[in-house]
Design brief:
173 residues; alpha+beta; Alpha-D-Glucose-1,6-Bisphosphate, Chain A, domain 4; 39% helix
Length: 173
Amino acid sequence: MQRMPFFAGLAAGVLVGAVLSVWLVLPDQRAAKSGFVFDASVEEVWDVFTDPASQASWRADVVRVEMVRDNGWRQWIEYPQRGPAIQFTETRVERLKTYALDMTAENAFTGKYQAVFEARDDNTTLGVFTETVTLQGFMPKLMSYLFVNQREFTRTYCLNAQAEIERRRDAAP
């Protein structure tokens, strides 16, 4: 019977050591850059990407979007299906070229997002997306590394945006 507390203590020590090791080894900052070619004009792509209020209607991972400020630099809060609410603030808007945002999820992460668009001769648009997040705290770091694939998230976002572009085309008079 005296061995039981020893093994419980040993197991707890190993667990704490493993958690601390993970905490020290995993970087606080994550970054991803990826590209996507849209079968659409740069104007169509721009209109979808710079319309945050509509995203809850075409993104399955977003419950709702609350516009906070719409004068000067726009600001909004996105409420995802899972995870914390994320506040976005525009930081650079160069029409049909660059769209940059700061983002914050309280007690989870802060970050920067940039989309750069290039119109191509065949009426397609190349989008290059860069996202850098700084994780805050052990659980956000662990959850991010276990469950968030930034490149796959961007790919899904772009596929949903392409579908929304096509929906808007079909709805146009």
